[in-house]
Amino acid sequence: VLNGYYYSKKYKCKFVFEVRDIWPLSIIELGGYSRNHPFILFLSMIEKLGYKKADILVGTMPNLQEHVDNIVGGDLKKCYTIPQGYNPAFYENQEKLDEDYINQYIPKNKFIITYAGTINKNNPLVVLIESAKILKDENIVFLIVGDGNNKEYLKNLSKDLPNVIFAPKIPKAKVNHLLSLSSVCFDSFSSTLAKYGLSRNKWIDYMFAKKPIICSYSGYKNMINESNSGSFVDFGNSKLLADEILKYSNMSEKELKEYGDRAHNYIIENRSFKILAENYLNLFNV
After folding, report:
1. Long-range contact set of residues 93-100: C-beta below 8 Å, sequence gap at least 24
2. Which residues lie closer than 8 Å to 118 by C-beta, 6 or more apart?
3. What is the DSSP secondary-structure string of the chain?
4. Which has fewest Cβ within 10 Å: 33, 112, 117, 151?
5. CB-based contact 39:23 (threshold 8 Å)
6. Model confidence over 87-98: pLDDT tens digits?
């Protein structure tokens, strides 16, 4: 921030302050640091300076404006959103899952709701296990793919549930194939940071794979509702989540495909790096 401000003055150019994580709020909320820690106070000072001095504020989160207003008191700053995107070339070089992996972890003739990603407290999946208990007599399988420090706890929590499957982490290049074998994708996020919105790479993967998304989340809503490609369910409410999963499981293949197509089209039309780069360049004319 200090260097950026200095050079903007030296060369008489615009000072662009880009926020990819809201620091220090992120490490306070997710790392458990005290707001009065000297390092946190220092970061807070730098953050406030950046917000006040920047000519352009850019964030990946769609509701950054609210946070900036809280920090600088509505100091007439305007925030612009340039969210996470994707490289089309990456999806052109996808790999297939091994047949052994498919045979062991992905059942046939089942409605499969899949979570793929890190399994930790920042992506809380207890609500998914609780929903699996409610839906244990339905033709629905809950597939959790990945590793993390909360995995063993969840496995123990679901040890008596035959409809919950834990599968090992797979390479990023194979995720698209995994998702193509799923019916619906799931995500969950809980933090006060959610009030400023999310820009999840996970959602991009899910949507590019043409899958509806059900998300346990009570923050600022975007992407999924904008594209009409899935549902947000109040975070932590396992009964509502189970009802929503059951609703999708009762949809026809045609209906599910329509959700998936809308998801895919949204990503293609809005989130390629080329499109985002053009949007970013346009900010310099603001």
Report:
1. 93/173, 94/173, 94/174, 94/176, 94/177, 95/171, 95/173, 95/174, 95/177, 96/174, 96/177, 97/170, 97/174, 97/177, 97/178, 97/181
2. 146, 147, 148
3. -HHHHHHHHHTT---EEEESS-TTHHHHHHH---TTSHHHHHHHHHHHHHHHH-SEEEESSTTHHHHHHHHHTS-S--EEE----B-HHHHTT--PPPHHHHHHH--SSSEEEEEES--STTS--HHHHHHHHHTTTSSEEEEEE---TTHHHHHHHTTT-TTEEEE----GGGHHHHHHT-SEEEEE--SGGGGG----HHHHHHHHTT--EEEE--S---SHHHHT-EEEE-TT-HHHHHHHHHHHHTS-HHHHHHHHHHHHHHHHHH-BHHHHHHHHHHHTT-
4. 33
5. no
6. 988 888 889 999
- Between CA 48 and CA 46 the distance in angstroms is 6
Cβ–Cβ contacts within 10 Å for residue 9, how many?
Answer: 11
Return the amino acid letter for 218. Answer: S
Q: Which residues contact 98 (CB under 8 A, 6 or more apart)?
A: none
For residues 101-125, give the mean pLDDT: 93
- Which pair of tokens denotes residue 107? 């059942």
The b-or-e profile of 96-129 (16+ CB within 10 A means b, else e) is: ebeeebeeebbbeebbbbbbbbebeeebbbbbbb
User: Is the pLDDT score of 69 beyond 70?
Assistant: yes
pLDDT in the model for residue 76: 59
15 in Cβ contact with 53 (< 8 Å) = yes
User: For residue 175, which of 51, 55, 90 has the smallest C-alpha distance?
Assistant: 90
